[in-house]
Amino acid sequence: MSKVVLVTGGSRGIGRQVAIQLAKEGYRLLINYNKSQKEAQETCRFLREEGYQVEIFKADVSKQDQVKAMFDFCMDRFGSIDVLVNNSGISYEGLITDMDEEDWDRIIDTNLKSVFLCSKEALKHMISNHSGKIINISSMWGQVGASCEVAYSASKAGMIGFTKALAKEVGPSGINVNAIAPGVIMTDMMKDFDQSDIDYLKGETPLMRLGQPEDIANLVSFLVSDKADFITGQVLASNGGFVI
User: Fold this and answer.
1) Annotated domain spans of the chain
2) DSSP character for 185?
3) From CA 30, how far away is CA 21, in angstroms rounded?
4) Is 33 a catalytic residue?
5) pLDDT, the chain, mean
6) Runs of H (alpha helix) within 50-113
7) Catalytic residue of the set 27, 33, 52, 152
8) What residue ranges in the chain does DSSP mark as E strands?
9) Whole-angstrom Cα distance, residue 126 to residue 169?
10) 113 Cβ partners below 8 Å, 6+ apart?
């Protein structure tokens, strides 16, 4: 029986490409979404038409009861959870002096608390199976910080610390935990950037191009494969050399 993957925030951008890539590689797939129902349904329909086993589930992954319901659904439909890709994330740009507590909590809850809640539920099954892989999609700004993105940078840095600590904790149970720190990736998060901004970012990238969701999906594909069985607690960068 093929392995089961749950991708949070899997209806758009990086998450969608990760879902498509892993489905094509034979994984059974549960795509989580919260607000992007139309996109989730379209992705699900596309993959099912190609013959892949895919389900979708609406859940706010910052809410414990909704996360539990999602994992219960996964176990009911597929009978296991072998891989968790914590991809859900939102951004905020602006001075910290202009940021209110509500915005801060929303960023931390969506980007970091969700990783705790989903990983905790997944581990209930992975530990008993003595196997499993958790991939956390962080950011290069979690490594070096970004001006006017303090909350986002803090949440992504928290994911990196979470990854390293959890890898040590569950390694004896045969579970791998790794993080990916993408650079500038052409997704919906770039919609407010004009061409001059994009050209500037390309110029700051040694490979002279910006990333595509496929770049991250390929790295996820490697980390969840048997080829990465001896890799854990690591932060793998895919940023074109923007951060070295």
Assistant:
1) 4-238
2) B
3) 13
4) no
5) 96
6) 64-78, 101-108
7) 152
8) 4-7, 28-33, 54-58, 83-86, 132-137, 175-182, 235-238
9) 13
10) 62
Q: How far, in Å, are 37, 134, 198, 221 from residue 118 at the CA level?
A: 20, 10, 34, 20
Tens digit of pLDDT for each residue in 86-103? 999 999 999 999 999 999
CATH architecture of 4-238: 3-Layer(aba) Sandwich (3.40)
Supply the DSSP symbol for 216: H
Closest CA to 40 of 50, 49, 30: 30
CA–CA dist 37, 82 (Å, integer): 25
Instruction: Give the relative orientation of helices 13-24 and 213-224 as an angle to the nearest 10 degrees.
Output: 50
- pTM for this model (two decimals): 0.96
Q: Report the residue count for the chain.
A: 244
